[in-house]
Amino acid sequence: MNELPVGLFDSGVGGLTVLRAMRACMPGESFLYLGDTARLPYGTKSRDTIARYSLQVTARLVERKIKLLVVACNTATAAALPALRRAYPEIPVIGVVEPGAKAACAASREGFIAVIGTESTIRGRAYDEAILKLRPDARVIGLPCPLFVPLAEDGLVEGPLAEGIAARYLDRVFRVPRERGENIPDCLVLGCTHFPLLADAITHVAGPGVTLVDSAATTARAVKSTLEEHGLRSAAETGESFFLTTDDAERFARMGERFLGFPVPESRVELVDL
Amino acid sequence: MNELPVGLFDSGVGGLTVLRAMRACMPGESFLYLGDTARLPYGTKSRDTIARYSLQVTARLVERKIKLLVVACNTATAAALPALRRAYPEIPVIGVVEPGAKAACAASREGFIAVIGTESTIRGRAYDEAILKLRPDARVIGLPCPLFVPLAEDGLVEGPLAEGIAARYLDRVFRVPRERGENIPDCLVLGCTHFPLLADAITHVAGPGVTLVDSAATTARAVKSTLEEHGLRSAAETGESFFLTTDDAERFARMGERFLGFPVPESRVELVDL
Fold first, then answer.
1. Which end of chain B is flanked by fewer CB atoms within 10 Å, N or C?
2. pTM of the entire structure?
3. Which of A193, A215, A237 is the last residue of a domain?
4. ipTM of this predicted complex?
5. How many domains does chain A have?
């Protein structure tokens, strides 16, 4: 059981940032990643559809045997986490929203927290709810940044263009009030698994004194402690990663490298039909 | 029959630029638009899936009665036009690729033509084939511009950021060879229904002496002459437009305005399930 992989899924390649963080903090673990690229993006679909897709994807991962499930997608976490936990009571299921909210509450001095994400994640207010549950006095401001996902997928993650687009979304909450001497959030949650790629540009635009919270890193730590609590850590020294995708293995391997930080061998990517 | 609407569809709101061009050149016609927003983007899906979706969408439009069908999406045109013509021999079916290719061949002096589009459209080489069929001596260069669709949807269509991103894609074919005194294309086809919104930024970056061919405008003219050939023009002075969408009528109305150039009343947008 302990030598089974940790399963994780996302609508596409964004969740690979969570895999990257998990590999860094648990090098002995193996991972089985499923990117549902044929049906991406989840962000524009109804909650019912997202929950249905998430259950289908999870069924496939469970069929291949996994010891823990990570929902490495903010939209799917918000729409499907309770349904997945009900459907698979025997497997610990961890989403990306709660660890991100917890880390934000710990990192923020003043409790004034900005959350950036896709339009759907921000509109759904999942982070607002998770943060306010932990810290009812917090003030949360959500900022949809719809261009960040395509920027990250296109590899345009730094320099004046990336910073210019970041400024377009963030200036009204950071630069403008700062110049007026007004309060600004002291913590900024990257509420989308694509966004860690843009961390430098975002930091540059948010300015000094703002702590970035990366839900990939905090989710990885949550997975590690959950595996330890359940006595499920692998004894291996180095684990392996395997990839499933629902569309175009070559494109998955090519795009994946940017998010994972190392090449994804196409031989490790298997096309599956859901 | 003549007073029936012209039907058109796209995976989302991009095809509204084709509707806009058709309304401008045929103010007496009525239109029935279907945006399959629940399943967008088509661009990352397999050709079989795109053909199946296109047939489903068309069946719905035909059920509501239309006198002509416009496939207002480059991806769907490339993947499904023959299948649609076979399925509905009684209705003229017009795609966006052929009119765009024809206009490009007419506009280019030297026969050196650049085509920009989504990754899927450029990889599929539908424009290359259509242009070479009409002008076998042409030299066609395809440039995928994946960020243009999200830029247009986000309303970021002019100024230094839009131009900077356009330069990222186009400089190697226009500015760089021009500075070296090498040949550059004299014609640039906007091979995606989203791109007319970015025409100013694209013109600025392509530089002088490059004719932009907008497949929306040329498709509108092809529809007009086809209606005339078939004796199907409406006798009305002003037509009306109706909208069907497969997801979130409010978002469709909000996004649609940018592409259509005038507000889309939410009361004219009907949610349909395919």
1. N
2. 0.88
3. A215
4. 0.83
5. 2
